């Protein structure tokens, strides 16, 4: 009984640290709570949130999975799972997690908004809506005589990767038109047009 009380106190302390943005201390508290009561799904859920806020998405995913394993009928666990998957760019899997959570808890606003965001991200990253997300993009660029030489430049590859993740960058920066070197030639290297 004393362990359960101590674990609950650690959880509350972790929640306070989480709210103030001290993710490392929050994780520490949740980890201690888990050591005292490794079957309490909420501890994993909260630690998953702390890991996610600290941008440690793989660990957030592991804890979210453990939470769902311990309490598969708890919708909020699927919210944590969906969030971790989304942060990792695994939007189709996130959609499935949010959908499962909504089956269990149809009024949960976190699950609803997470599902909408995962769907939007999946659509943005689809090769149909984002030509830079095509799996064979580099093969096509390497075999095209007009683009082949650009792949030799690191800044061009970095630009392509940025566009794969966010095609809305196209048109916001003269460097995204082609390689940075080509953009510099078009703009005298200082931003003014030739």
Automatic annotation (TrEMBL):
Residues 135-172 form the STI1/HOP DP domain. Residues 181-194 have a biased composition (Basic and acidic residues). GO terms for molecular function: Hsp90 protein binding. Signal peptide: none annotated. Residues 169-194 are annotated as: Disordered. GO terms for cellular component: cytoplasm. Keywords: Cytoplasm, Repeat, TPR repeat. This is Stress-induced-phosphoprotein 1. It comes from Acropora cervicornis.
